[in-house]
Amino acid sequence: MSDTIDLLRRQVADLHQELVRYGLVVWTAGNVSARVPGEDLLVIKPSGVSYDELTPENMILCDLHGNVVEGEHAPSSDTAAHAYVYRHRPDVGGVVHTHSTYASAWAARGEPVPCVLTAMADEFGAEIPIGPFALIGDDSIGRGIVETLDGHRSPAVLMKSHGVFTIGKDARAAVKAAVMCEDVARTVHVSRQLGEPLPIAQADIDRLNFRYQNVYGQRPAAQ
Amino acid sequence: MSDTIDLLRRQVADLHQELVRYGLVVWTAGNVSARVPGEDLLVIKPSGVSYDELTPENMILCDLHGNVVEGEHAPSSDTAAHAYVYRHRPDVGGVVHTHSTYASAWAARGEPVPCVLTAMADEFGAEIPIGPFALIGDDSIGRGIVETLDGHRSPAVLMKSHGVFTIGKDARAAVKAAVMCEDVARTVHVSRQLGEPLPIAQADIDRLNFRYQNVYGQRPAAQ
Amino acid sequence: MSDTIDLLRRQVADLHQELVRYGLVVWTAGNVSARVPGEDLLVIKPSGVSYDELTPENMILCDLHGNVVEGEHAPSSDTAAHAYVYRHRPDVGGVVHTHSTYASAWAARGEPVPCVLTAMADEFGAEIPIGPFALIGDDSIGRGIVETLDGHRSPAVLMKSHGVFTIGKDARAAVKAAVMCEDVARTVHVSRQLGEPLPIAQADIDRLNFRYQNVYGQRPAAQ
Amino acid sequence: MSDTIDLLRRQVADLHQELVRYGLVVWTAGNVSARVPGEDLLVIKPSGVSYDELTPENMILCDLHGNVVEGEHAPSSDTAAHAYVYRHRPDVGGVVHTHSTYASAWAARGEPVPCVLTAMADEFGAEIPIGPFALIGDDSIGRGIVETLDGHRSPAVLMKSHGVFTIGKDARAAVKAAVMCEDVARTVHVSRQLGEPLPIAQADIDRLNFRYQNVYGQRPAAQ
């Protein structure tokens, strides 16, 4: 148990460096969490600590209502949203939140990113949808995430006027979704600056998504 | 006293690397200063020295009229503006100036950045306002900064046709404001390229700002 | 023979770092391959392995139908397209595939990049053409690449709604074409955002291309 | 004499890293040269050699007609243009050429960058002008640079459909001009994407330029 938590502390701390590497975050905005499998616990970034200073030791262990179980710092101010997702989506093992530029630009207009790239069909299987405007401080953000992604293929939701939340079977998959979300939000934005991207037929989106989710990558440890 | 100044020399030298890291500056443009608490003194970057060569030792100690007290180089050519701010805003402990791309692009149009992102409501609590066109060489720039920010929640001002000045309780807070200013100036720019970002209700801006300024981050040493 | 393959394993592994350096790829998207000269074999990236973890040893050796000859991982999911190109273009020694942002943005609109820069005339000798929309899983992508580039000066093709494939006499030349493709796709995009780039006369494009392909660089080992 | 040349070899090799650092070049495009003071000689980058492999030793020494005096490689294919500038502008000690994205985007439209930023007034003192379309291979490019910059305050010229050439009293000043040229070309581009940047009165441009060229930086070793 304690070994699992130690591993997750290291993994969550390290995955924040992927947010930095891909330019998804500035200063201390943005956070990654992981569910502790089989426990009502999650591991998350401390609030207001810079990415250079994140270590396995200063990650925060919380229960699934966001109460600190172990840790010297306050947890990310987005912990309530992460916790809500874990409580309502038992299939989710990782959650990521960023204000990455292009995804947030779509979110600021309240406009979903249309699925006009084969890589988007692969990873998202559909448009990247818009969630409601929601204030921090209660369950509004978490509920907006869960309700928007419910029954949706996309592991990413653009919260209106705010930024992105992504989910995954583990923290690494959620980080991958955050990286890919910004990448396709940027490419589709750039494409639309000079005209309309061509649509992809729904049947082709379906075929691409099915193949990617079932065939791509190394087996058995896909991703 | 001398220990405090030594610490500030190191802090100011190091904080310039944050300007580099976040791409806010090229060559030698841009500068950070810190007030020496309880003294009529400030620590600032030397003029025309490259970011690679900044050390605690070559930072310049000036009085609050921009006269050099200690230092082998000339101080930043923006020292008069920094000094003016410290003379007229006793609550300010740090000042930053950059020509960061997106903020300067709004400044070149003389157009404030509208508050259409929750992260902007958090950090700026309002639009990022425009200050007057002012020439270097007397108190015009400093006065423009102070008059524009007087009674404004925003710690950043876009000086018309010029660039950004930010203030903070210390140099680190002013650097954070400069980083966030460019980040939101970029996101709102990108969003507006393809339509109009949705407004956020004033009451929601007020709520977000109050919460962020009073609750966010680690206590007691919040951000 | 085995020495040649070892050299190609190292070269292909290393060249992936150029894709990272020039920002052409995120996560595990994008791949480089090289033909084994004189053999019906190619060396290619493993599928779904991150760029940090690529080594000469984990590159995959395949035959020219994409069957693994040597390697512990599955080969890139784009291997069939690479293999098709090698089978039908005996002059090609290297193939690269990316979803680089600006090239993919043109591809998403199905619009070729017009030849309006002397550097484009040098390297591409013409517009960068659009290939058909094609699904992964059979020879459609490979055939689309070969048919589009047949008799075309450009070593790059923008596959509709997908991304870029480039070819070269060896893997390094194909990587160079991928880097230059994104560079000119970006510059022409940016130029067109504020008006129409000036055309270059066909005779000048011809002169520039002839000179560059025959005179530029170090001799005898050009590029 | 030989010591001076050794110093210039090192300086020119090192300054190419500034082109890389500021993202002005990809692959092997772009080059820096320096005049050997008091001699009819220049030091320049070899052709088609990657930036990682540039060393003081592989820099090329040429006469002012571009003939190699010392060096194992061919000199940059732009050597004739550099040499022409040195022959006709005895005040010039350094020349830089790049295809940097935003400057080249203005060049592709044949449109000068208007002087709408105080930093542009400082460094360029005017718009950044457009030079003629000119083919490589004779003196056309060199002549276009010299004729365009003759009597112009700007140390940068945008060669139509091509890229940027900058000049300076030494190679470092020319590199600074190339860095600042891309920076202001980008900021003015971004500003114009959402409206018209405000003009700066000519008298203010004159004042800013005079002050910057005569007062800014460290004395006596300005820059």
From TrEMBL, chains A, B, C, D:
It catalyses: L-ribulose 5-phosphate = D-xylulose 5-phosphate. It holds the Pfam family Aldolase_II. Keywords: Metal-binding, Zinc. It is an enzyme of class 5 (isomerase). It comes from the Bacteria. Its EC number is 5.1.3.4. Residues 10-189 form the Class II aldolase/adducin N-terminal domain. Its cofactor is Zn(2+). Belongs to the aldolase class II family. AraD/FucA subfamily. PANTHER family: FUCULOSE PHOSPHATE ALDOLASE, L-RIBULOSE-5-PHOSPHATE 4-EPIMERASE SGBE. This is L-ribulose-5-phosphate 4-epimerase. The lineage of its organism: Bacteria, Bacillati, Actinomycetota, Actinomycetes, Kitasatosporales.
